[in-house]
Design brief:
By secondary structure, the protein is an all-alpha fold. The chain is built from 14 helices and no strands.
Length: 282
């Protein structure tokens, strides 16, 4: 008789080992974040540089958050970052989808070359275009304004490529049905392509929001007015002003992370369906 197969026991042990490794990896990734939150919650009389380090605060307090908003224009920084990020997201969803639709569906001479040139711009470092972009913003009279932060992010090569690939997965029959119903090419884009690419649009929105929310170099170059500072610039001012009180720096960092974390939690369930599946259901 053949020996009994130890398959279920082996698979169970492998699953347990895999789960343990994933938990250890998650702990390594989350440990800096937990340390940041713990530092922001430690009381004024508590030593944050104890040896050995104490992960949990012995005197939990929200004093650092209160001082953070009382002594600094954090609401202004948050408002500026939210406005810039929201408009950058809306502009990307509109312009990238409009550019991706003809690259996915229309047949014209040089379409492949246009797509290759668009994708090739991803390889260009921002430092290369930083000075020409600065001179352009000065000539347009947009220096020291929030528009100078929004316009350079209004469309991205990554967004065009992502949505183009998403539109390619939409069945042509849906467009033909819309055309029979009297839709124009713009109507097909709005009524067929946009609903079908919902998950990729949300993915693009998250990428653009995170990139715009955390951008530091370009706002540092183009802005001089503290009233227009975004949150990364505000945190930099905070670190230089209160370099000895790391509770405030940690509290400001936690405040900057929360909107991104909340956005991911709210939108992650919309990323799972693929574009073609959404299109067939639509």
């Amino acid at each position: 008789m053949p020996p009994a197969s130890p398959g279920p026991q082996v698979s169970g042990r492998a699953a347990a080992l895999q789960l343990t490794l994933l938990l250890l990896l998650a702990l390594v990734v989350l440990l800096p974040l937990l340390w940041l939150v713990s530092t922001s919650l430690k009381g004024p009389a508590e030593n944050i540089f104890t040896s050995p380090p104490a992960l949990l605060p012995s005197q939990p307090s929200l004093a650092a958050y209160g001082q953070l908003f009382a002594a600094n224009p954090m609401l202004t920084y948050l408002r500026n970052s939210a406005l810039v990020s929201a408009l950058a997201v809306l502009a990307n969803l509109l312009f990238c989808s409009l550019a991706a639709y003809p690259l996915a569906r229309l047949r014209f001479r040089g379409r492949g070359l246009v797509l290759a040139l668009v994708v090739a711009t991803i390889l260009i470092p921002f430092q290369v275009v930083m000075i020409p972009l600065y001179l352009l913003m000065v000539q347009l009279g947009l220096r020291n304004s929030l528009w100078a932060l929004i316009l350079p992010q209004a469309a991205t090569a990554f967004g065009i490529f992502l949505l183009r690939q998403s539109f390619l997965g939409v069945p042509v029959e849906l467009e033909e049905a819309a055309r029979i119903d009297g839709c124009s090419p713009l109507g097909e884009w709005w009524n067929v392509m946009i609903p079908a690419a919902r998950s990729d649009l949300i993915t693009l929105a998250m990428f653009v929001f995170i990139g715009s929310w955390s951008d530091f170099l370009w706002p540092l170059i183009i802005l001089d007015d503290p009233g227009l500072y975004t949150l990364p610039l505000g945190l930099q001012q905070l670190a230089s002003s209160f370099s000895l009180d790391w509770r405030l720096v940690a509290a400001g960092s936690v405040v900057s992370i929360l909107p991104v974390l909340l956005l991911f939690i709210l939108l992650q369930r919309f990323i799972l369906p693929n574009a073609s599946g959404d299109a067939v259901k639509g």
